[in-house]
Design a protein that fits this description.
Layout: H1 8-14, H2 20-32, H3 34-50, E1 57-58, H4 61-70, H5 76-86, E2 88-89, H6 92-106, H7 114-127, E3 134-135, H8 139-145, E4 166-174, E5 177-186, E6 189-197, E7 207-211, E8 214-221, E9 224-230, H9 234-244
Antiparallel strand pairs: 1-2, 3-4, 4-5, 5-6, 6-9, 7-8, 8-9
Helix pairs in contact: 2-3, 4-5, 4-6
Length: 246
């Protein structure tokens, strides 16, 4: 066996990853090659030293509690057993860092935020050339189009005189339900306005965020949830929000 070409086999041998025939082949080589035998023995010595009991100690209970708090509530019961066995380790600050990183990695991936969902939908509508199911600048055409397709009647306003003409609408799917999307324009900038019934009748203040370069406004009014998404600047998008739900 060539030491240069097959050196990676030594790592597989140490990790117990080789098949029976390969293992015999490596052991035969180690018996005849002092260099490889010495290197493998050095790795074994290092591994043995790292496994010495005096390098390990019980982590403080306060650290265990911090890790538990970082795991989402619904995951805590299923992670409790894992944490109990894993919490034995050593290394002070290094251990703390590793513990926190692993706690993050084992947590279930976070569901995308609603802001991310509407931006993804907005982008998809532009890329798939599916901005509208019904094309019309007449609110009396767009509003009836939703009849029978939704379990609610979305409020539809024509804002052409204010510089935000209605150009159509479509159906989409957010938060596990079908929602109405009213499509407006400001010059060459499309605005997707997502509408669905709110869980309560309380109005809310407008919240603003930027996701992937798109501006998103979120608010509740008159029993509906609204999300306006566009690459339009925030000042004009706020003007649109004040006009569409006066």
């Amino acid at each position: 066996m060539d030491c240069t070409l097959d050196r990676h086999l030594l790592e597989g041998y140490l990790d117990g990853e080789l098949g029976f025939e390969r293992t015999l082949e490596v052991e035969a080589h180690l018996a005849s090659c002092r260099t490889c035998h010495s290197e493998v023995q050095s790795w074994k010595d290092v591994r043995g030293a790292l496994q010495r009991s005096d390098l390990y100690y019980r982590a403080p209970s306060s650290l265990e509690e911090k890790i538990r708090k970082m795991v989402p509530q619904e995951n805590r019961k299923e992670r409790a057993s894992w944490l109990h066995h894993w919490i034995w380790a050593g290394g002070g600050a290094a251990f703390a860092t590793a513990a926190l990183l692993i706690a993050f990695m084992i947590s279930r991936p976070a569901a995308p935020s609603l802001g991310q969902e509407v931006v993804t939908s907005h982008i998809r509508s532009l890329m798939a050339n599916h901005l509208m199911d019904v094309i019309s600048t007449d609110q009396h055409t767009v509003k009836p189009w939703f009849d029978g397709k939704l379990d609610f009647a979305p409020p539809v306003r024509d804002l052409a005189k204010e510089g935000y003409p209605l150009v159509g609408g479509r159906l989409d799917y957010l938060e596990n339900r079908t929602v109405a999307v009213l499509v407006y324009r400001r010059a060459l900038h499309p605005i997707n306005l997502y509408v669905w019934p709110a869980a309560d009748n309380r109005d809310s203040l407008v919240q603003q965020q930027t996701v992937q370069g798109y501006n998103v406004l979120s608010w509740k009014k008159n029993g509906f949830e609204f999300r306006a998404v566009s690459d339009l600047n925030t000042d004009e998008l706020h003007d649109f929000e004040r006009l569409v739900t006066p």
